[in-house]
């Protein structure tokens, strides 16, 4: 079983809403994103996170090519998102899931997450004009 997916399921089972935790962690490591996202309400933040979760649960990015083309270009042109912001955001998701599942977290989960974040980051940065 995909351990990234499994860890999301464990976090959901214990009822923690990880979205606010993720943004807190993200803004700590990326203060420049605070202003960028200040006009965005919880609804839009939640919608954005749904797509981030979906992409993190994907093992093959080929079917996501069009979506990634669109979203990376849009984030770059409309919001001036920098490549390092993606890396920090995805890592904030990993840390929030880790905190949420606490003692269930293991080195195997960590390895699965680092692999997935690496794959998704490559997909995003390959499409970025700033990377
Ligand atoms: C894999 C990474 C990401 C995905 C899949 C993603 C996806 C999305 C989606 C789907 C929306 C639109 C939500 C809606 O209106 O329904 C959105 C909006 C937005 N995202 Fe992201 N995002 C990602 C990373 C980032 C990063 C790193 C930043 C940096 C701060 C960022 C900043 C924004 C901003 C500023 C909006 C604007 C919303 C608005 O003005 O309406 N995103 N994102």
Q: What's the structural blueprint in terms of helices and strands?
A:
Elements: H1 3-13, H2 18-29, H3 32-36, H4 42-56, H5 65-79, H6 83-101, H7 107-125
Helix pairs in contact: 1-6, 2-6, 6-7
The structure holds protoporphyrin IX containing FE.
Structure explained in plain terms:
The structure is a single chain. This protein is mainly alpha-helical and 131 residues long. The protein has a single domain (3-125), classed as Globins (Globin-like, Orthogonal Bundle), CATH 1.10.490.10. The protein is 73% helix and 0% strand. The protein has seven helices and no strands. Helix 1 (3-13) crosses helix 6 (83-101), helix 2 (18-29) packs across helix 6 and helix 6 runs antiparallel to helix 7 (107-125). The site of protoporphyrin IX containing FE has 17 residues, from helix 3, helix 4, helix 5 and helix 6. Protoporphyrin IX containing FE binds next to helix 3, helix 4, helix 5 and helix 6.
